Amino acid sequence: MDRNQKEQAIKLHDCLDYIGLRAQATSVGLLQLCAELVAVGILDDAAVERIKNAIQHDITVSRPRKHGQADFETLLRKRLDAVFPSACDPRIGMRVGTAQAMQDALTPGGSELAGG
């Protein structure tokens, strides 16, 4: 992510955090909306990729630790890919693994990218 993208992601993160749109309910609504729009052909895979990129950028800039950053980003992307719909499969809610598996992958000397 370049400097401008990072600055924009930080501003958006702060704004959404301030107004309280960080809830799981908002995420569920976004996923359902994407699934509906993909199913009727309004969103294509490229649009869904841009949505996932925006989410990944926000989560990456809000993460306080820097150790294991590459592993974190890889696992985050894998999990985003699992829950968002695609043109060939507009369903949502695929298995992404446990929170503990993600934590284990991020600790020094932890397991491989588990939880997929």
Task: Please supply descriptive tags for the structure shown above.
116 residues, mainly alpha, 5 helices
Task: Tell me what you see in this structure.
There is one protein chain. This protein is mainly alpha-helical and 116 residues long. 64% of the residues lie in helices and 0% in strands. The chain has 5 helices and no strands. Helix 1 packs across helix 3. The C terminus is likely disordered.
Sequence-ordered SSE layout with sheet pairings:
Elements: H1 3-19, H2 24-39, H3 45-62, H4 69-83, H5 99-106
Helix pairs in contact: 1-3
Query: What Rg is obtained from the alpha carbons, in whole angstroms?
Result: 15 Å
**Ranges with pLDDT <50 over ≥5 residues?**
111-116
| Main sheet specs | none
What is the H-and-E element order?
A: HHHHH
The overall strand count is: 0
Strand content: under 5%
Computed structural class = mainly alpha
User: If you average the pLDDT, what whole number results?
Assistant: 78
What sort of overall outline do the alpha carbons produce when their principal axes are compared?
globular
Summarize the structure.
The chain is built from 5 helices and no strands. It is an all-alpha fold and 116 residues long.
